[in-house]
Sequence to fold (145 residues):
Amino acid sequence: MPEAYREVFIRAIRDAGLVADEQQVTRETFESARSRRHGSVVYFVEREGFIKIGTTRDLRGRLAALEQGGVLMPDGVPPGPVTLLATTLGDRDVESGYHTRFRRQRVKGEWFRPSKALRHLIEDLQRAEQQGRPDVLDEALAAMA
Fold:
């Protein structure tokens, strides 16, 4: 793999929260990321000031389930409309990386208090979507294919 591509890929893997900065990016990490390329998405939704970070293969169905109360909610928050903030390609490993990254803001289950860093991540994902760009991980994987 050309060194320039390797650096972009490693940066994308770390930014996606798949590995910590001190961890080595392995071939298994690369293959796992490649297999996710056309699979599920990680989504960010907001309800009454809390942000849920989840993953699904059926975003429309998942949003409907969230609004009908089919998931664990923060204490005192009733089921109801959610606002979809952003999505990015990824599976449970990517979702878990975000959960770990924002663990100090965790309220309950997959719900988090919005922090400056979490809002910044969501803004970056929104900006990439508005500009019609694929997410960073997908871009890096495409360059390596």
Observations:
- The longest helix spans residues 116-130.
- Residues 140-145 have pLDDT under 50 and may be disordered.
